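> run fold Alkaline/neutral invertase
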Amino acid sequence: MFFTLNDPSHWAVFCFIFILHIDPNSLTMCPLRINGSPNGNVKTLGSAGTIFEAEDSDILLRIMERPRAINVSFEERPSNELLSNHFECLSPHGRRSGFNSPRSYTSFEAHAMVGEAWENMKRSIVYYRRQPVGTVAAMDHSVEELNYDQVFVRDFVPSALAFLMNGEEEVVKNFLLKTLHLQSWEKMIDQFKLGEGVMPASFKVIHNPVRNREILIADFGESAIGRVAPVDSGFWWIILLRAYTRHTGDSSLAEMPECQRGMRLILTLCLSEAFDTFPTLLCADGCCMIDRRMGVYGYPIEIQALFFMALRCALLLLKQDQEGKEFIERIVKRLHALSFHMRNYFWLDLKQLNDIYRYKTEEYSHTAVNKFNVMPDSLPDWVFDFMPTRGGYFIGNVSPARMDFRWFCLGNCVAILSSLATPEQASAIMDLIESRWDELVGEMPLKICYPALESHEWRIVTGCDPKNTRWSYHNGGSWPVLLWLLTAACIKTGRPQIARRAIELAENRLSKDHWPEYYDGKTGRYIGKQARKFQTWSISGYLVAKMMLEDPSHLGMISLEEDKQMKPLMKRSTSWTC
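> ok
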């Protein structure tokens, strides 16, 4: 193919080449190569040549076109082609060039924040014996690091998704294998031994001067606030393993005996039989993203939604051998019970709110309507004004004589992505977000929970926690990382305009404010009083949201279609006869 200056389309190609600093004679792109030292700091900058043939000019032209609407099939492998994703480097074998391609600008209307975000992401990478194994929680060196210099399992998930979307699979694979290795450690807190399947909350790379080499130090809860083991880490690990397998099309990692055993150990912990009369998981306060005392003990929605999603992912990953089949049978039974329980007893809309308001108490029979003996007088005043005519959500917690009516963003978004929520419930959740935009999104997305605990309730529930004062941190603070979950839920429910509006809000301030961990205030107007700057998951959450909105096929990594074999939704009155 020959270029002529008379053809306007060829002028576009030359302009595109100029912007990317490509030598028009050889059509060679020279991206920066970032070589990381073992401690994760940038050591040297170099260049690597990657050839574009003349025949690829039509590809460059198509990149510059605005993408058309995409009909997403979540059970098909998302495309990794250059055309629909990002400006990226092609190796001689047609694969992306990984960490040598820090630019991940999108194929249209690339925001200046995207480039800055990727540069910060590269600086956050942690290396173990010269191999990338994760990202630090934050890179704010103006304050004491505490445990923000560690790699957290839950924090790394959006970073992993961003790397996968950018074709950088190595760091994700290394992370999965290293955390799996840490799972096998003997875990002791005081004189008590934790379950074998517990995954670490975080780990850190340190230099051992005696052996003169790097070693990993893991935290299974023994150093955490309140000494609570992370229940969510194992679920996030399974979900990320499925995302890696789904995106790469490579099942060899998941099929490794070590990975199969790791999954079975996690499942053994959460599928074990005890005194529970519910299919939900009983948890202590502080066992998930909300890792401080916030009244989420019992059966928190975040854990139940992650539990449901992890079980569904495990169904796709477990091998059909003897051990695998036994677990698959147990998973299927638990999924049926869990979906029924959550869709019925955790769901709240205007009709259900009115029913609870009229509940009778002290019912004793299998036909009781008020099965948990919830006192109607315990309904908080705010929920009557908060509930729109159209809309609904999964409430925070349900246990005997107790319902936590607070809205929790993560649990509801994961419920949509995992198809724990029925299509009707998923649509109602999005209706609620649109109807209560000022309360749940405000000036900075997104409220981790709503409303905040105040006054006497705050003193009793949090123990006068100075970090969780009203509208701050976990107590009604606004967390930019939740943007990626909202975006994924919006795409799945066919409402990308909601995500686009939230992303635009974030772009007004995130970069100027140096990527804070969270924001304070009723509308999220103020940078959090103890928020770390350059918080990695605030950065990666924005990148994932941006890339997912511009290429919805990425949603397949983190979304599961509704299981057609799942039992149909039953009426409450038939629950005791099924």
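The CA atoms of residues 276 and 282 lie 8 Å apart.
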